Amino acid sequence: MKYLTPTTLLLQATTALATPLLASRQRQDPAVFTGVSSFRGQGCEGATVTYDSLSQVATITYPNYGVVIPSGPREESCSTTLQVRFPVGQCTTGTASGTATGTVNVPVGVTAFFSARDYAIQPTIGTITDVSPNGQWAGPRSEEYVLQDSIGYTLTPPNAQNNLVNFTVFGDLSLQPQNGPVGSLTNRGFVFDIRTQVPC
Ligand SMILES: *[C@@H]1O[C@H](CO)[C@@H](O)[C@H](O)[C@H]1NC(C)=O
């Protein structure tokens, strides 16, 4: 075994103590998902959510979110609100990205719509670049679809009371004309990813 002088031992102990302190002072706490605030609408029925190990990627599965003509349901909606905890009193800038996947099967003469208003973010703190994750497919189309969008934001939660932020994505599926020939549109999943974060 190597002989260590008392000075070396003291230095090692000091370094061991100082390193984590320094690291925690420099590290910015990341924003993380804390859970689903709400699922609203018939299309959300049976929806489940899972998170990655860092709680920064939420994967939502919708087993019953779909429309079909002529038998119905002809219109379905689902609003999903995910709650994110931002670090208190620190500025966070980032890009949250959403990916919706599903299937579209429409013959000529039928158009499928995924209508979503801009994401709603509450409370409305900081600056947000709004996007609208809409989709539209004119038949004949028969495919798996992927809709991607992203929201840029800069948030500085001013105090401990409002570091929780709700991100809501609205959605509504429909087929036009509703009395048209056989067609269907589903939204099977939605992935919301908040990994891209930079302290500001
Ligand atoms: C987030 O949504 C939940 C459930 O709807 C609500 O109770 C809470 O007040 C919302 N938080 C904010 C900051 O709007």
From TrEMBL:
Signal in keyword set: yes
InterPro entries in alphabetical order: DUF4360
Position of the signal peptide: 1-18
UniProt KW keywords: Signal
Stored Pfam families: DUF4360 (PF14273)
Highest taxon, organism lineage: Eukaryota
Protein name stated in the entry: Secreted protein
Organism: Cercophora samala
